[in-house]
Amino acid sequence: xxxxxxxxxxxxxxxxxxxxxxxxxxxxxxxxxxxxxxxxxxxxxxxxxxxxxxxxxxxxxxxxxxxxxxxxxxxxxxxxxxxxxxxxxxxxxxxxxxxxxxxxxxxxxxxxxxxxxxxxxxxxxxxxxxxxxxxxxxxxxxxxxxxxxxxxxxxxxxxxxxxxxxxxxxxxxxxxxxxxxxxxxxxxxxxxxxxxxxxxxxxxxxxxxxxxxxxxxxxxxxxxxx
Amino acid sequence: xxxxxxxxxxxxxxxxxxxxxxxxxxxxxxxxxxxxxxxxxxxxxxxxxxxxxxxxxxxxxxxxxxxxxxxxxxxxxxxxxxxxxxxxxxxxxxxxxxxxxxxxxxxxxxxxxxxxxxxxxxxxxxxxxxxxxxxxxxxxxxxxxxxxxxxxxxxxxxxxxxxxxxxxxxxxxxxxxxxxxxxxxxxxxxxxxxxxxxxxxxxxxxxxxxxxxxxxxxxxxxxxxx
DNA sequence: TTGTCGGCCGATCGCCGACAA
DNA sequence: TTGTCGGCGATCGGCCGACAA
Lengths: 226, 226
Description:
Order of helices and strands of chain A: HEHEEEHEHEEEHEE
Subcellular location (chains A, B): Nucleus
Family (chains A, B): Belongs to the ARF family.
Number of helices of chain A: 5
GO cellular component, one term (chains A, B): nucleus
Distance between the termini of chain A: 17 Å
Protein name (chains A, B): Auxin response factor
Oligomer: homodimer
Subunit structure (chains A, B): Homodimers and heterodimers.
């Protein structure tokens, strides 16, 4: 998935460890987060904490809910194996915590009018000015179609119009389809982003808690799968 | 789930073993059916086939897709443990293969007109006569609301009307909601059933193959969970 | 007997400016 | 500047009989 959007959805406080770094694994904490706690009774030589080496980090998103999470593969072997050369990430590497250089983003909490079926999306002035492409203000009304990509890389198109008295920016056609497909409701946050190349991205974060259902990476097959 | 509907969806060729009977378990075959093949390398004393006792059988249905499947718990201990008393099933027991006595059923492959958003469901004459409650043919047009339960026990209501020239039986109001909720398409089969008490049930089978995602029953906790 | 079609009517969707916070 | 509302036109859902296979 796109690391811009992943980080915007996860929030700036969420940080992932760099590949090759050494961390402590707490089985007890892992079990408590799991929806079906595993039975450790048969595992020999259980220890409360395990020193591990991070062998892989993947930024992932649930295909159904768009919930973002990180899959962190740990290698418990000691001494740690020599680091595997990591292919350069497309942006600034998954280990870093900050956003990419030159990326502009804007977040808004969806109002009831934004989330209602009947309406469009009220675009705050700053978002339209600093993120969306400039409109041709000689037209009446000024209008364009903007194309954005979500965390999966899926492309969405919105009609962006500047109309009404007094004038305001709105997203109309395409917006309600996005809201319905993503099952967004009032109170959820939406984030628009523009990278150095001017490409647009969209992400969001839901208000309610979601109980994560992930998978597991076997530590015997490090890094690039397949 | 209701065993009438389960059997109608699974088909008459699908049979489940009786609790207490002894079967052979083939780990290899089990692994091949699984979407993420398990790694047996760490399991000691692997054998190609294992003689087991059936400790529990549950007829289940995927809450999302309505895909039916059986969860069969196996106990590899030898000699087999004394049989656990099984509470009598509501119908004829999950071990049997045949349909219940006095159950009348009728299946139809959905036509494009049946599955289209715009239309209702053309009820074949035999289905209306032998399964649905009798209409009051003095009314013009004869019409009633029928109430059916699906494999989960969820109740669905359909408007059943006898109209048109020439006259024919149709399901109108409520039908398209059912089609949309169940994501039925032309070519899928639908089954209507009536038991001795006159209660109506509905099930269906999809044309396309679905890759099952089930769960596992630990053999250490036989039969009734909780 | 029953599958498909076009007609038609009502419900909903969704775009709009008015207005006020 | 922007959130909400009522208006209203376009679209769609869905019920109907006609007709033919």
